[in-house]
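Kindly go through the entry underneath: sequence plus fold tokens. Please state briefly how this chain folds according to its tokens.
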Amino acid sequence: MVQKIEKDHQRFRQIVKGKIRGDLRKFLTRGELIGKEGKNLISIPIRGVDLPHFRYADNHDAGVGQGDGEPGQQVGDDQGAGMGGEQPGRHVMEVEVSLDELADILGEELQLPRIKPKGHHNITAVKDRYSSIRQTGPESLRHFKRTFRRALRRMIMTGAYNPTDPTIIFERRDKQYRSWKPVKKPQSNAVIVYMMDVSGSMGHEQKELVRLEAFWIDAWLRRNYDGIESRYIVHDVHAKEVDRETFFHLREDGGTKISSAFKCCKELLDRHYSPAEWNIYLFHFSDGDNSSESDSRECCKLLRDVLLPQSNQFGYCQVASAYGSGNFINVLKDQLSEAENMVTSRVNTKDDIYDSIKAFFTKGR
């Protein structure tokens, strides 16, 4: 019976995943999902999915399929809509899905290849693995099933076991405890540096697009790496590192100098993240407006000489704005078209996030 229930539950989970996969583009644009994040679970509203159950009918009254009838005879009356019903309608079911499951669905639907980390042999984590049993240990590590079996076996062999009064009395020699040993495990670490233009031309709508895109980028990368860090840089004509909350809510009124963010990013990597030991991902979000052509050329030089050689990938996402020139993405394509680890995308509306994420990770870097 337990196996049957487990089988039904697994089938239900597959149905839920199929519903999520079918509406993935819609879920990618739901900003409220980010707010529901907690303990690595997200509550997903699913329509039209019910747990299988029996419903018993009232057999006292005749119904469709009972009694006499002729082919083509109309069922019911033709009086049109009657009084409002008293039965409950179908409600939306909220299903808890882990971030890992969502990331896997994202990867399967977008056909994203698994990322092959670099530098994994340079970082080794030591973890305790409970892989053996011993006779002594703290009670918190006592293995109940093994202890119970040993006590039951002893009582049966000595004739002390009474089937009518199946009381099991433990002795010291029956007790078994979990034991551990340190295991060296190669670990791939990654850092994501998010950079965003917070000048006057980047309004609330543009920041919402950045927030959604960054959330799904983060979810996919965390699915591919054991250890990951996220750093945040904002800039107008000057750049600075900030925390996550500030990154998504800060708004300035100044001009734009994109090179200031790239210089701040270089200093951050030089201080904390060696490219030999870290998988480095850089993402810059902007409306494409920059202070001058000379600064755009300086940005390309920083990317070509410093940032691109150090990173697994640099992703530039240009969001639509009524106030930005939108020219920076064209500069990158013209000046750095030969760079294999640079990917650019345009996000004009929330519906474009789906294609943007696919563009960033389709090559599995």
